[in-house]
Amino acid sequence: MKSEITIVAFALLSVAMQKPPITTNTNPTNVTGIPVGKCIDCHSLQKGNRRAVVGEFNLASHHLQSANLNEKDCRACHDLTQHKKGKVRLHNADTGEIITLTGNPMTDYAQAILLEPFCLACHDADGANGQPPFSDQVMPQVIDASLFDIGAHKAGGAAGPMTCYGDGETFGCHNTAHGSAKKNILAPYTADQPPVNGDPLREEEGMCYTCHDADGPSMFDQESLFNLPSHHHISSIDQQDGSKVECTNCHNPHTANPSMLLADPDSGGKNPWTGTKVDFCITCHDGNPPADVSFPANYTGTGYDKSNFIGSTHQSNLGAEGCGHCHDEHGSVNQSLLELKYVDTDYNSYSFGDGDYALCWRCHDETSTVFGNNAFSTKHSRHVSSERAACVTCHDVHSAYDPGEPGLINFGFAIRNGFNIAYRAGHEGSDAFYLNGSMTTGYCYITCHGKGHSPKSYTRNKNPMVDCSECH
């Protein structure tokens, strides 16, 4: 048994390492040619407990781009008035305040907290008090301090022991401002954590999982959800099918808080999202996703373009949070991230209460829908129970073939996926099903399970089947 476990573990680790680590930058900072006796000369070598920091500017990500490192760049952050006295002294670019570190902020949370205002002094709207901090003349990425101050990842925020600087595991997302083997100067800069499947360096979702996993410290275990059979494809392994979305398309770690978890995907995940949950999902699921988001070429569901959901019967009744009533945005044991079971195969043997259409019965009453006299008169029982037609044979829960049409009738999924159904007598799309002018009678022109409808008609009860007002 132990040998089998070892083989499986080794196989998973091998898969995880498919994405090779990036350890050098394509345009590293040139740190050669500096006169002896300058900062670079001493700090290129390890001495005692002092590590050789100059080489860190040659790692995959680092401060100072496309320029030679010089003493002025060192002084942009470091106060040297008490140099060689055993403590790192930094100065706030906005206020001039000196921050004296008495311990290691990579391992000491209290020391890491001291660096928050120091980092934000340059990562605000005006850089280093209105100027680029380094000789490369590049302005830093802007972090809105007002939003960071109320964010969950601020020291003392909703995430608990968290801040910008730390060990990359129990607190803090960045360490050493010089450089990192990961992108965005993520911690630990040595990239020596155990790899995550699909993210060996832990510089994407793996970075989030250091806190958002089963043992926390976050209360939200997202890693387990993304390991369920159905999930958004944030792993590089999943993305081999052409799909792509990242945690940071939907969340901004610098601004997220319990009342504002989402970021606008159209802004690259930078700006807070202020709209409805439905509109948030439609930002990507509208047939025109953001440039850095893509979908697989093949799919088994009703399609990734859900723009026609807006204004549909379900959207109108479910309200602004509509998508969340059926889908878990991170992962599910059911297909298409559905929260409950929803069978989408032809000839499904139906029995009352078996849960095959549990998602429908969350809002619709199973007895009255299948066996009652409703908007499909008394014919649901014949179709679903006797003829074993799945709900999705006739209904697209997101939109009817013709937007706004009652009943969400759309045979597209069944036709495309090889169900025993075909359009009949030249009637396709809109013509395959329609209601008369008074909307009291419906007509179908299809052949389904070998039975021709040329057309089949039914008397339609226009009274609503479900009163959603109690929940929505």
Describe this protein's structure.
With 472 residues, this protein is of the alpha+beta class. Among the domains are: 169 residues, no CATH class; 125 residues, no CATH class. It is elongated and about 95 Å long. Helices cover 20% and strands 7% of the residues. It contains 16 helices and 12 strands.
Layout of helices and strands:
Layout (H helix, E strand, L loop, with lengths): L1 H15 L22 H4 L18 E2 L8 H5 L12 E4 L6 E4 L7 H5 L2 H7 L22 H4 L30 E2 L24 H5 L12 H5 L3 E2 L15 H4 L26 H8 L28 H6 L12 E2 L25 H4 L4 H6 L8 H7 L4 H4 L17 H5 L4 E3 L9 E3 L5 E4 L1 E3 L2 E2 L3 E4 L13
Q: What key phrases describe this protein's structure?
A:
3-stranded antiparallel β-sheet; alpha+beta; disordered N terminus; 12 strands; elongated; 472 residues; 7% strand
- Gyration radius (Cα, Å) is 29 Å
- Tally the helices: what do you get? 16
- How far apart lie the N and C ends? 52 Å
Strand content: 5-15%
Which stretches are low in confidence, meaning pLDDT under 50 for 5 or more residues running?
1-29, 31-36
Shape call: elongated
Share of residues in helices: 10-25%
Order of helices and strands: HHEHEEHHHEHHEHHHEHHHHHEEEEEE
Provide a brief overview of the structure:
The protein has 472 residues and is an alpha+beta fold.
